[in-house]
Amino acid sequence: MKQYNAATGKVEDIVTLAYSDDEGAFWEPPAQPNMNFGAGHVPSSRDAEGLINALYEPLRKSEPVYVTRKILGRDQSNTFNVYQYTFAPKSYTKTIILSAGTHGNEDTAFLSLYRFLFHLVHDYRNYPQLAYIRENVKLVVIPFNNPWGVTNNVRHNSRSVDLNRNTDYLWDKITGTKYQTGGVYYKGSAPFSEAETQIVRSYLEGNSEAIAYIDFHNIQAVKAEHIVYTPRYLTQHREIFGDVINKMRKPTDRVVFGSAAVPTLYCYAANRFAMTTGNPEWWNGRYTDVLGSPNMTEILRFFGNIIIKACGLEYKTNVLETGEKFTKLFMYNKTGIDSITSTGTTYSNIKHTIYDFNIKRFGLLKMRGHIKFTLTESATVGINPFLYQVYHPDFAYSTAKDTLYGEYIQALAPGTYTIPINNAMHVFPTNYSESGGTQRAELAKMRIQAKVSIGTITIESFRIWIDYEPNNLGNPFEVYDATGKEAAAEGSDYVLKYPIITANDDGDL
Ligand SMILES: [Zn+2]
Question: Which CATH fold would you assign to the domain 326-498?
Protein backbone atom coordinates (compact mmCIF):
# COMPACT_ATOMS: atom_id res chain seq x y z
CA MET A 1 0.00 0.00 0.00
CA LYS A 2 1.38 3.39 -1.01
CA GLN A 3 0.97 6.67 0.78
CA TYR A 4 2.00 10.26 0.17
CA ASN A 5 4.31 11.35 2.96
CA ALA A 6 4.12 15.10 3.46
CA ALA A 7 7.39 15.08 5.39
CA THR A 8 9.44 13.73 2.48
CA GLY A 9 7.19 14.74 -0.39
CA LYS A 10 7.32 11.19 -1.71
CA VAL A 11 4.90 8.35 -2.22
CA GLU A 12 6.07 5.59 0.05
CA ASP A 13 5.01 2.20 1.31
CA ILE A 14 2.84 2.57 4.39
CA VAL A 15 4.15 -0.62 5.90
CA THR A 16 7.88 -0.87 5.50
CA LEU A 17 9.70 -3.67 7.21
CA ALA A 18 13.44 -3.40 7.18
CA TYR A 19 14.09 -7.09 6.67
CA SER A 20 11.75 -8.06 3.84
CA ASP A 21 8.19 -8.09 2.71
CA ASP A 22 8.22 -11.70 1.66
CA GLU A 23 7.13 -14.86 3.44
CA GLY A 24 10.07 -14.54 5.80
CA ALA A 25 8.43 -11.52 7.40
CA PHE A 26 5.97 -13.80 9.17
CA TRP A 27 7.44 -14.83 12.50
CA GLU A 28 7.32 -18.50 13.42
CA PRO A 29 7.92 -18.59 17.17
CA PRO A 30 9.48 -21.69 18.70
CA ALA A 31 7.25 -24.09 20.65
CA GLN A 32 6.23 -22.38 23.85
CA PRO A 33 6.70 -23.87 27.31
CA ASN A 34 3.85 -25.02 29.51
CA MET A 35 2.66 -21.76 31.12
CA ASN A 36 0.31 -23.19 33.73
CA PHE A 37 0.55 -21.56 37.14
CA GLY A 38 3.18 -23.46 39.09
CA ALA A 39 4.87 -24.90 35.98
CA GLY A 40 8.47 -23.98 35.19
CA HIS A 41 9.20 -20.36 35.99
CA VAL A 42 5.50 -19.42 36.32
CA PRO A 43 4.59 -18.89 39.98
CA SER A 44 1.83 -21.03 41.46
CA SER A 45 -0.04 -17.97 42.70
CA ARG A 46 -1.84 -15.48 40.41
CA ASP A 47 -0.67 -12.59 42.57
CA ALA A 48 0.10 -9.79 40.09
CA GLU A 49 3.15 -8.54 42.01
CA GLY A 50 4.49 -12.10 42.12
CA LEU A 51 3.98 -12.49 38.37
CA ILE A 52 5.84 -9.24 37.74
CA ASN A 53 8.70 -10.43 39.92
CA ALA A 54 8.87 -13.90 38.38
CA LEU A 55 8.35 -13.00 34.72
CA TYR A 56 9.16 -9.36 33.97
CA GLU A 57 11.89 -8.59 36.49
CA PRO A 58 14.27 -11.22 35.06
CA LEU A 59 13.94 -9.54 31.65
CA ARG A 60 14.95 -6.23 33.17
CA LYS A 61 17.81 -7.77 35.15
CA SER A 62 19.25 -9.49 32.10
CA GLU A 63 19.17 -6.28 29.99
CA PRO A 64 19.06 -3.36 32.43
CA VAL A 65 19.86 -0.74 29.79
CA TYR A 66 17.35 -1.94 27.21
CA VAL A 67 14.59 -2.77 29.71
CA THR A 68 13.52 -0.26 32.34
CA ARG A 69 10.46 -0.01 34.50
CA LYS A 70 8.46 2.55 36.36
CA ILE A 71 5.44 2.56 38.62
CA LEU A 72 2.52 4.34 36.97
CA GLY A 73 0.37 4.43 40.08
CA ARG A 74 -1.80 2.34 42.36
CA ASP A 75 -4.84 0.42 41.23
CA GLN A 76 -8.34 1.26 42.48
CA SER A 77 -8.05 -1.18 45.40
CA ASN A 78 -4.86 0.63 46.44
CA THR A 79 -3.14 -2.74 46.91
CA PHE A 80 -1.23 -3.12 43.64
CA ASN A 81 1.20 -1.07 41.59
CA VAL A 82 0.54 -0.73 37.88
CA TYR A 83 3.92 -1.12 36.18
CA GLN A 84 5.23 0.04 32.88
CA TYR A 85 8.16 -1.74 31.25
CA THR A 86 9.95 0.13 28.50
CA PHE A 87 12.02 -1.68 25.89
CA ALA A 88 13.97 1.14 24.28
CA PRO A 89 16.77 0.88 21.70
CA LYS A 90 19.54 3.49 21.92
CA SER A 91 17.98 5.33 19.00
CA TYR A 92 14.49 4.50 17.88
CA THR A 93 12.23 5.92 15.22
CA LYS A 94 8.82 5.09 16.64
CA THR A 95 6.90 4.06 19.70
CA ILE A 96 4.32 1.29 20.09
CA ILE A 97 2.25 0.72 23.25
CA LEU A 98 1.23 -2.80 24.30
CA SER A 99 -0.94 -3.82 27.23
CA ALA A 100 -2.75 -6.83 28.68
CA GLY A 101 -4.58 -7.86 31.81
CA THR A 102 -7.30 -5.26 31.32
CA HIS A 103 -9.59 -8.18 32.05
CA GLY A 104 -7.81 -9.99 34.86
CA ASN A 105 -9.04 -13.48 33.98
CA GLU A 106 -7.62 -13.45 30.44
CA ASP A 107 -4.48 -15.44 31.23
CA THR A 108 -3.31 -16.65 27.84
CA ALA A 109 -3.38 -13.07 26.55
CA PHE A 110 -1.20 -11.56 29.29
CA LEU A 111 1.14 -14.56 29.43
CA SER A 112 1.69 -14.57 25.66
CA LEU A 113 2.55 -10.86 25.72
CA TYR A 114 5.23 -11.76 28.26
CA ARG A 115 6.44 -14.62 26.04
CA PHE A 116 6.85 -12.23 23.10
CA LEU A 117 8.99 -9.95 25.25
CA PHE A 118 10.98 -12.95 26.49
CA HIS A 119 11.97 -13.72 22.89
CA LEU A 120 12.61 -10.05 22.16
CA VAL A 121 15.09 -9.92 25.04
CA HIS A 122 16.73 -13.33 24.70
CA ASP A 123 16.30 -14.51 21.10
CA TYR A 124 16.29 -11.46 18.89
CA ARG A 125 19.48 -12.47 17.12
CA ASN A 126 17.67 -15.51 15.74
CA TYR A 127 14.79 -13.59 14.22
CA PRO A 128 15.16 -10.58 11.90
CA GLN A 129 11.65 -9.42 12.85
CA LEU A 130 12.66 -9.14 16.50
CA ALA A 131 16.05 -7.65 15.63
CA TYR A 132 14.26 -4.91 13.69
CA ILE A 133 12.27 -4.01 16.80
CA ARG A 134 15.39 -4.10 18.97
CA GLU A 135 17.00 -1.54 16.69
CA ASN A 136 14.12 0.73 15.74
CA VAL A 137 11.09 0.59 18.00
CA LYS A 138 10.47 1.69 21.57
CA LEU A 139 7.91 -0.62 23.17
CA VAL A 140 5.94 0.75 26.09
CA VAL A 141 4.47 -2.31 27.83
CA ILE A 142 1.91 -2.45 30.60
CA PRO A 143 1.82 -6.11 31.66
CA PHE A 144 -1.37 -5.71 33.71
CA ASN A 145 -3.78 -2.80 33.36
CA ASN A 146 -5.84 -4.45 36.12
CA PRO A 147 -3.54 -6.19 38.63
CA TRP A 148 -6.38 -6.68 41.14
CA GLY A 149 -8.39 -8.54 38.49
CA VAL A 150 -5.36 -10.66 37.57
CA THR A 151 -4.79 -11.60 41.20
CA ASN A 152 -8.47 -12.40 41.79
CA ASN A 153 -9.00 -14.07 38.39
CA VAL A 154 -11.91 -11.81 37.40
CA ARG A 155 -12.77 -9.56 34.48
CA HIS A 156 -13.51 -6.43 36.51
CA ASN A 157 -11.55 -4.22 38.83
CA SER A 158 -12.14 -4.05 42.59
CA ARG A 159 -15.26 -1.92 42.07
CA SER A 160 -16.80 -4.32 39.55
CA VAL A 161 -16.09 -1.92 36.69
CA ASP A 162 -15.27 -3.24 33.23
CA LEU A 163 -12.24 -1.06 32.48
CA ASN A 164 -12.78 -1.64 28.77
CA ARG A 165 -16.02 0.38 28.99
CA ASN A 166 -14.78 3.20 31.24
CA THR A 167 -13.25 5.77 28.85
CA ASP A 168 -15.02 8.87 27.55
CA TYR A 169 -15.38 7.58 23.97
CA LEU A 170 -19.16 7.13 23.51
CA TRP A 171 -19.50 6.52 27.27
CA ASP A 172 -22.79 8.47 27.34
CA LYS A 173 -24.13 6.44 24.43
CA ILE A 174 -24.10 3.02 26.11
CA THR A 175 -27.14 2.79 28.32
CA GLY A 176 -28.28 -0.86 28.55
CA THR A 177 -28.57 -2.64 31.89
CA LYS A 178 -25.42 -4.65 31.15
CA TYR A 179 -23.50 -1.35 31.40
CA GLN A 180 -25.05 -0.38 34.75
CA THR A 181 -24.09 -1.35 38.31
CA GLY A 182 -23.92 -5.12 38.55
CA GLY A 183 -23.82 -5.57 34.79
CA VAL A 184 -21.19 -7.70 33.09
CA TYR A 185 -19.93 -4.62 31.22
CA TYR A 186 -20.48 -2.13 34.05
CA LYS A 187 -19.12 1.14 32.66
CA GLY A 188 -18.49 2.85 36.00
CA SER A 189 -20.04 5.95 37.54
CA ALA A 190 -18.31 8.31 35.08
CA PRO A 191 -15.72 8.17 32.29
CA PHE A 192 -12.32 7.48 33.81
CA SER A 193 -13.89 7.00 37.24
CA GLU A 194 -11.36 4.24 37.98
CA ALA A 195 -7.72 4.57 39.00
CA GLU A 196 -6.76 1.99 36.36
CA THR A 197 -8.33 3.85 33.43
CA GLN A 198 -6.85 7.12 34.69
CA ILE A 199 -3.47 5.38 34.50
CA VAL A 200 -4.21 4.18 30.95
CA ARG A 201 -5.17 7.69 29.92
CA SER A 202 -2.02 9.04 31.47
CA TYR A 203 0.36 6.59 29.76
CA LEU A 204 -1.38 7.17 26.42
CA GLU A 205 -1.02 10.93 26.92
CA GLY A 206 2.59 10.50 28.02
CA ASN A 207 3.36 8.50 24.87
CA SER A 208 0.99 10.29 22.54
CA GLU A 209 3.52 10.06 19.70
CA ALA A 210 2.97 6.27 19.58
CA ILE A 211 1.61 5.11 16.23
CA ALA A 212 -0.13 2.02 17.60
CA TYR A 213 -1.65 0.77 20.84
CA ILE A 214 -2.61 -2.89 21.09
CA ASP A 215 -4.47 -4.29 24.13
CA PHE A 216 -4.44 -8.10 24.20
CA HIS A 217 -7.48 -10.12 25.29
CA ASN A 218 -9.11 -13.53 25.47
CA ILE A 219 -12.72 -14.02 24.51
CA GLN A 220 -15.38 -16.57 25.33
CA ALA A 221 -18.52 -14.94 23.92
CA VAL A 222 -17.30 -15.44 20.35
CA LYS A 223 -15.99 -18.84 19.28
CA ALA A 224 -13.63 -18.59 16.34
CA GLU A 225 -10.02 -19.40 15.50
CA HIS A 226 -9.12 -15.79 14.64
CA ILE A 227 -10.74 -12.77 16.23
CA VAL A 228 -9.87 -9.10 16.28
CA TYR A 229 -11.89 -6.03 17.17
CA THR A 230 -11.05 -2.60 15.80
CA PRO A 231 -12.77 0.79 16.18
CA ARG A 232 -15.83 0.72 13.93
CA TYR A 233 -15.93 4.36 12.82
CA LEU A 234 -12.29 5.39 13.09
CA THR A 235 -9.66 5.35 10.37
CA GLN A 236 -7.21 2.53 11.01
CA HIS A 237 -4.33 0.61 9.50
CA ARG A 238 -6.50 -2.49 9.88
CA GLU A 239 -4.22 -4.45 7.58
CA ILE A 240 -1.85 -5.17 10.48
CA PHE A 241 -4.50 -7.51 11.87
CA GLY A 242 -5.96 -8.73 8.59
CA ASP A 243 -2.57 -9.65 7.13
CA VAL A 244 -1.73 -11.83 10.13
CA ILE A 245 -5.13 -13.53 10.16
CA ASN A 246 -5.00 -14.19 6.44
CA LYS A 247 -1.54 -15.67 6.78
CA MET A 248 -2.58 -17.98 9.64
CA ARG A 249 -6.07 -19.05 8.65
CA LYS A 250 -6.74 -22.52 7.41
CA PRO A 251 -9.64 -23.15 5.01
CA THR A 252 -11.98 -24.37 7.74
CA ASP A 253 -11.10 -21.65 10.27
CA ARG A 254 -13.72 -19.25 11.53
CA VAL A 255 -12.58 -15.64 11.30
CA VAL A 256 -14.20 -12.68 13.03
CA PHE A 257 -13.17 -9.19 11.95
CA GLY A 258 -15.17 -7.54 14.70
CA SER A 259 -15.69 -3.84 15.13
CA ALA A 260 -16.96 -1.96 18.10
CA ALA A 261 -18.12 1.53 19.00
CA VAL A 262 -17.95 1.46 22.81
CA PRO A 263 -15.70 3.13 25.41
CA THR A 264 -12.90 0.57 25.12
CA LEU A 265 -9.31 1.53 25.75
CA TYR A 266 -8.46 0.94 22.09
CA CYS A 267 -11.36 3.04 20.75
CA TYR A 268 -10.29 5.85 23.08
CA ALA A 269 -6.66 5.65 21.93
CA ALA A 270 -7.66 5.59 18.26
CA ASN A 271 -10.05 8.50 18.62
CA ARG A 272 -7.93 10.72 20.80
CA PHE A 273 -4.41 10.01 19.53
CA ALA A 274 -4.87 8.77 15.93
CA MET A 275 -3.20 5.49 16.85
CA THR A 276 -3.84 2.22 15.06
CA THR A 277 -5.46 0.15 17.76
CA GLY A 278 -7.37 -3.00 18.43
CA ASN A 279 -8.24 -5.85 20.69
CA PRO A 280 -6.78 -9.01 19.23
CA GLU A 281 -8.78 -11.71 20.99
CA TRP A 282 -7.81 -15.33 21.49
CA TRP A 283 -10.42 -18.04 21.92
CA ASN A 284 -9.04 -20.86 24.08
CA GLY A 285 -11.61 -23.42 22.95
CA ARG A 286 -9.35 -25.53 20.78
CA TYR A 287 -7.31 -26.97 23.63
CA THR A 288 -8.36 -28.26 27.01
CA ASP A 289 -5.00 -27.31 28.51
CA VAL A 290 -5.29 -23.64 27.64
CA LEU A 291 -1.95 -22.70 29.21
CA GLY A 292 -0.20 -25.72 27.71
CA SER A 293 2.39 -25.57 24.98
CA PRO A 294 0.20 -25.96 21.82
CA ASN A 295 -2.25 -23.21 22.72
CA MET A 296 0.49 -20.86 23.97
CA THR A 297 2.46 -21.40 20.76
CA GLU A 298 -0.55 -20.62 18.56
CA ILE A 299 -1.56 -17.50 20.49
CA LEU A 300 2.02 -16.24 20.33
CA ARG A 301 2.03 -16.74 16.54
CA PHE A 302 -1.09 -14.56 16.39
CA PHE A 303 -0.23 -11.86 18.92
CA GLY A 304 3.48 -11.81 18.11
CA ASN A 305 2.94 -11.21 14.43
CA ILE A 306 0.43 -8.45 15.15
CA ILE A 307 3.07 -6.72 17.28
CA ILE A 308 5.59 -7.15 14.46
CA LYS A 309 3.17 -5.69 11.92
CA ALA A 310 2.38 -2.77 14.24
CA CYS A 311 6.12 -2.13 14.54
CA GLY A 312 6.31 -1.93 10.74
CA LEU A 313 3.84 0.95 10.58
CA GLU A 314 5.27 4.35 9.74
CA TYR A 315 2.37 6.73 10.17
CA LYS A 316 -0.42 7.67 12.49
CA THR A 317 -3.91 7.16 11.15
CA ASN A 318 -4.51 10.87 10.56
CA VAL A 319 -1.83 10.70 7.87
CA LEU A 320 -3.57 7.70 6.33
CA GLU A 321 -6.78 9.70 6.30
CA THR A 322 -5.30 12.16 3.83
CA GLY A 323 -4.81 9.44 1.27
CA GLU A 324 -7.99 7.41 1.36
CA LYS A 325 -10.84 7.45 -1.10
CA PHE A 326 -14.28 8.44 0.07
CA THR A 327 -17.85 8.41 -1.19
CA LYS A 328 -20.68 10.63 0.00
CA LEU A 329 -24.31 10.48 -1.04
CA PHE A 330 -26.51 13.59 -0.94
CA MET A 331 -30.19 12.75 -1.22
CA TYR A 332 -33.56 14.43 -1.21
CA ASN A 333 -37.19 13.36 -1.63
CA LYS A 334 -40.04 15.86 -1.80
CA THR A 335 -42.46 15.28 1.07
CA GLY A 336 -45.17 17.73 0.09
CA ILE A 337 -44.60 19.82 3.20
CA ASP A 338 -42.55 22.30 1.21
CA SER A 339 -40.72 22.26 -2.09
CA ILE A 340 -37.48 23.19 -3.83
CA THR A 341 -38.07 25.14 -6.99
CA SER A 342 -35.85 26.69 -9.61
CA THR A 343 -36.61 29.50 -12.00
CA GLY A 344 -34.77 31.92 -14.28
CA THR A 345 -33.30 31.80 -17.77
CA THR A 346 -29.67 31.74 -16.63
CA TYR A 347 -28.09 29.10 -14.43
CA SER A 348 -28.51 29.42 -10.68
CA ASN A 349 -27.87 26.97 -7.88
CA ILE A 350 -30.65 24.57 -6.94
CA LYS A 351 -31.20 24.92 -3.21
CA HIS A 352 -29.70 22.14 -1.05
CA THR A 353 -27.40 20.80 -3.77
CA ILE A 354 -24.51 22.81 -2.30
CA TYR A 355 -21.69 21.17 -0.35
CA ASP A 356 -17.96 21.84 0.17
CA PHE A 357 -15.19 19.26 0.52
CA ASN A 358 -11.83 19.53 2.21
CA ILE A 359 -9.36 17.90 -0.18
CA LYS A 360 -6.13 16.56 1.34
CA ARG A 361 -4.30 15.38 -1.77
CA PHE A 362 -4.28 15.86 -5.53
CA GLY A 363 -6.93 13.64 -7.00
CA LEU A 364 -10.24 13.21 -8.74
CA LEU A 365 -13.61 14.37 -7.51
CA LYS A 366 -16.46 12.68 -9.36
CA MET A 367 -20.12 13.46 -9.29
CA ARG A 368 -22.82 11.06 -10.42
CA GLY A 369 -26.50 10.43 -9.77
CA HIS A 370 -29.81 11.78 -10.98
CA ILE A 371 -32.29 14.55 -10.41
CA LYS A 372 -36.06 14.33 -10.91
CA PHE A 373 -38.18 17.42 -11.52
CA THR A 374 -41.66 18.44 -12.66
CA LEU A 375 -42.27 21.03 -15.36
CA THR A 376 -45.72 22.65 -15.58
CA GLU A 377 -45.45 24.17 -19.07
CA SER A 378 -43.45 23.54 -22.24
CA ALA A 379 -39.96 24.97 -21.80
CA THR A 380 -36.27 24.41 -22.44
CA VAL A 381 -34.65 23.10 -19.28
CA GLY A 382 -30.95 23.13 -18.51
CA ILE A 383 -29.37 21.11 -15.70
CA ASN A 384 -25.70 21.81 -15.01
CA PRO A 385 -23.94 19.73 -12.36
CA PHE A 386 -20.64 21.36 -11.62
CA LEU A 387 -17.64 21.27 -9.38
CA TYR A 388 -15.10 23.97 -8.70
CA GLN A 389 -12.47 25.18 -6.29
CA VAL A 390 -11.93 28.83 -5.47
CA TYR A 391 -8.53 29.85 -6.96
CA HIS A 392 -8.16 26.54 -8.79
CA PRO A 393 -5.80 27.35 -11.70
CA ASP A 394 -8.19 25.71 -14.22
CA PHE A 395 -11.52 25.23 -12.44
CA ALA A 396 -12.17 28.33 -10.42
CA TYR A 397 -15.84 29.29 -10.28
CA SER A 398 -15.70 31.59 -13.29
CA THR A 399 -14.15 28.88 -15.50
CA ALA A 400 -15.98 25.87 -14.14
CA LYS A 401 -19.45 27.33 -14.54
CA ASP A 402 -18.84 27.81 -18.25
CA THR A 403 -17.28 24.45 -19.09
CA LEU A 404 -20.74 22.83 -19.03
CA TYR A 405 -19.09 19.40 -19.19
CA GLY A 406 -21.99 17.83 -17.35
CA GLU A 407 -24.71 19.97 -18.85
CA TYR A 408 -28.02 18.50 -20.00
CA ILE A 409 -30.25 20.78 -22.04
CA GLN A 410 -33.55 19.83 -23.62
CA ALA A 411 -36.87 21.28 -24.79
CA LEU A 412 -39.54 19.45 -22.81
CA ALA A 413 -43.30 19.19 -22.64
CA PRO A 414 -45.00 19.51 -19.25
CA GLY A 415 -44.30 16.44 -17.16
CA THR A 416 -41.92 14.80 -14.72
CA TYR A 417 -38.39 13.87 -15.82
CA THR A 418 -35.36 12.12 -14.35
CA ILE A 419 -32.04 13.45 -15.63
CA PRO A 420 -28.62 11.85 -15.03
CA ILE A 421 -25.95 13.82 -13.18
CA ASN A 422 -22.30 13.36 -14.22
CA ASN A 423 -19.19 15.45 -13.79
CA ALA A 424 -15.61 15.25 -12.56
CA MET A 425 -12.65 17.48 -11.88
CA HIS A 426 -8.96 17.31 -11.13
CA VAL A 427 -8.91 18.55 -7.54
CA PHE A 428 -5.98 20.18 -5.81
CA PRO A 429 -5.29 19.94 -2.07
CA THR A 430 -7.15 22.56 -0.07
CA ASN A 431 -4.51 25.24 0.52
CA TYR A 432 -3.76 28.09 2.77
CA SER A 433 -4.26 31.24 0.70
CA GLU A 434 -2.44 34.33 1.85
CA SER A 435 -4.42 37.49 1.47
CA GLY A 436 -2.79 39.65 -1.20
CA GLY A 437 -0.29 36.94 -2.17
CA THR A 438 -0.61 34.18 -4.71
CA GLN A 439 -4.01 32.60 -4.16
CA ARG A 440 -4.27 28.81 -4.11
CA ALA A 441 -7.03 26.26 -4.47
CA GLU A 442 -9.42 26.10 -1.53
CA LEU A 443 -12.37 23.83 -0.65
CA ALA A 444 -13.85 21.86 -3.53
CA LYS A 445 -17.46 22.82 -4.10
CA MET A 446 -20.37 20.85 -5.46
CA ARG A 447 -23.50 22.49 -6.91
CA ILE A 448 -26.27 21.62 -9.30
CA GLN A 449 -27.56 24.52 -11.32
CA ALA A 450 -30.74 24.80 -13.35
CA LYS A 451 -32.30 27.20 -15.82
CA VAL A 452 -35.70 27.15 -17.48
CA SER A 453 -36.83 29.27 -20.46
CA ILE A 454 -40.25 29.91 -18.96
CA GLY A 455 -42.00 29.10 -15.69
CA THR A 456 -40.61 27.03 -12.83
CA ILE A 457 -39.33 23.51 -12.20
CA THR A 458 -40.08 21.75 -8.94
CA ILE A 459 -37.52 19.24 -7.65
CA GLU A 460 -39.08 15.85 -6.87
CA SER A 461 -35.91 14.11 -5.70
CA PHE A 462 -32.20 13.82 -6.25
CA ARG A 463 -29.35 11.49 -5.55
CA ILE A 464 -25.88 13.00 -5.87
CA TRP A 465 -22.94 10.67 -5.33
CA ILE A 466 -19.53 12.22 -4.79
CA ASP A 467 -16.46 10.00 -5.11
CA TYR A 468 -12.99 11.26 -4.24
CA GLU A 469 -9.89 9.37 -5.29
CA PRO A 470 -6.33 10.50 -4.60
CA ASN A 471 -4.33 10.49 -7.82
CA ASN A 472 -0.82 11.62 -8.66
CA LEU A 473 -1.20 11.84 -12.45
CA GLY A 474 -0.71 15.30 -13.89
CA ASN A 475 -3.84 14.81 -15.97
CA PRO A 476 -6.17 12.40 -14.19
CA PHE A 477 -9.17 14.13 -15.81
CA GLU A 478 -9.18 14.68 -19.56
CA VAL A 479 -11.97 15.97 -21.76
CA TYR A 480 -12.21 15.08 -25.45
CA ASP A 481 -14.65 16.91 -27.72
CA ALA A 482 -15.88 15.81 -31.16
CA THR A 483 -18.13 18.84 -31.64
CA GLY A 484 -17.93 20.01 -35.28
CA LYS A 485 -15.90 16.96 -36.25
CA GLU A 486 -18.66 15.02 -37.94
CA ALA A 487 -16.64 14.78 -41.18
CA ALA A 488 -13.30 13.99 -39.54
CA ALA A 489 -11.74 10.53 -39.91
CA GLU A 490 -11.95 8.19 -36.96
CA GLY A 491 -8.84 8.76 -34.89
CA SER A 492 -8.65 12.48 -35.67
CA ASP A 493 -12.17 13.37 -34.55
CA TYR A 494 -11.48 14.35 -30.97
CA VAL A 495 -9.96 17.56 -29.72
CA LEU A 496 -8.47 17.57 -26.24
CA LYS A 497 -10.37 20.28 -24.36
CA TYR A 498 -8.82 19.71 -20.97
CA PRO A 499 -6.11 20.08 -19.87
CA ILE A 500 -4.81 22.82 -22.11
CA ILE A 501 -1.30 23.39 -20.88
CA THR A 502 -0.24 27.00 -20.54
CA ALA A 503 2.89 28.43 -18.95
CA ASN A 504 2.35 29.69 -15.43
CA ASP A 505 4.84 31.60 -13.34
CA ASP A 506 3.90 31.48 -9.70
CA GLY A 507 6.15 34.32 -8.61
CA ASP A 508 9.43 34.19 -6.69
CA LEU A 509 10.03 30.47 -6.98
ZN1 LIG B 1 -11.04 -9.00 27.47
Answer: Jelly Rolls (2.60.120)
